[in-house]
Design brief:
The structure holds 2 protein chains of 2 kinds. Helices cover 40% and strands 28% of the residues of chain A. Chain A contains 3 helices and 5 strands. The longest helix of chain A is centred in the last third of the chain and has 24 residues. In chain B, strand 4 and strand 5 form a beta hairpin. By secondary structure, chain B is an alpha+beta fold. The relative contact order of chain B is 0.20. A 5-stranded antiparallel beta sheet of chain B has the order 2-1-5-4-3, sandwiched between helices. Helices cover 31% and strands 34% of the residues of chain B. The N and C termini of chain B lie far apart (43 Å). Chain B is globular, with a radius of gyration of 13 Å. The chains are: A alpha+beta, B alpha+beta. Chains A and B meet through helix 3 of A and helix 2 of B. Chain B: Pfam families: LAMTOR5. Chain B: It comes from Drosophila albomicans (Fruit fly). Chain B: Belongs to the LAMTOR5 family.
């Protein structure tokens, strides 16, 4: 089962050009699944312990703006872009090149829902 | 600010057989959509146009892609930073031509 999910996300990674990493964590940043291009740039910052909790806090604060629950935060940097999706109890993080197709990453949201359900189940049971 | 964009989209959707139209920027994000078209297709449409552009890397003329499905056709054209995606109703004539 886990191999199937990993294979699926690896396929997704190769479908979007310029995408370096897809990472699924829980809301505290505990990594559950990570797929990356081994030959691509060093994107270890995606594993930084502060990245996910910071997103969780930002997302919680953004939800208070009166626009409804915050779903996605896109962060553009000079060399990277980070797209983080709030799929509580899971956080989905995409790291790509600065010129990567953001719209394509956002369109993946609905495609991955089915696979996330299996992981969600595992997280809530444990 | 986007009045010009709205005007262009309005002009496109009033054309014959047009179901919906959408414009995307170079990040694949939807700049505007009119008619019956899902704004989420902007990223995928842009990805398709980028892949097709690789077929003729030296071409100065922007490629136009036409995807035929059962009842609709999708026309995609990338010109510089902007990608246009248009959904059209498949007319009997165009369906016959595609066959």
């Amino acid at each position: 089962m886990s191999d199937d999910i990993k294979k699926y996300f690896n396929g997704l990674l190769h479908k979007v050009s310029g995408l370096y990493v897809i990472q699924i964590t829980d809301r505290d940043g505990v990594p559950l699944l990570r797929v990356s291009h081994s030959q691509e740039k060093n994107v270890d910052f995606a594993l930084m312990p502060s990245l996910i909790p910071t997103f969780t806090t930002a997302s919680d604060q953004a939800s208070k703006l009166g626009l409804g629950r915050n779903k996605t935060i896109i962060s553009m940097y000079s060399n990277y872009q980070v797209v983080q999706m709030n799929k509580l109890p899971l956080i989905l993080t995409f790291v790509g090149a600065e010129d990567c197709n953001t719209g394509h990453i956002l369109a993946l949201e609905h495609q991955v829902d089915g696979y996330l359900e299996d992981i969600k189940m595992a997280v809530t049971e444990s | 600010m986007e009045q010009q964009l709205e005007k262009v989209l309005n002009e496109i959707v009033t054309q014959q057989d047009t179901v919906g139209a959408l414009l995307a920027n170079r990040q694949g994000l939807c700049l505007g959509a009119k008619g019956n078209i899902n704004p989420n297709v902007s990223g995928i449409g842009m990805a398709i146009s980028e892949q097709v552009a690789k077929l003729e890397p030296n071409s100065s003329v922007p490629a136009t892609i036409c995807l035929y499905s059962g009842s609709k056709r999708c026309v995609i054209q990338k010109d510089g930073e902007i990608t246009g995606i248009i959904y059209k109703q498949a007319t009997t004539g165009s369906t016959a031509a595609s066959n």
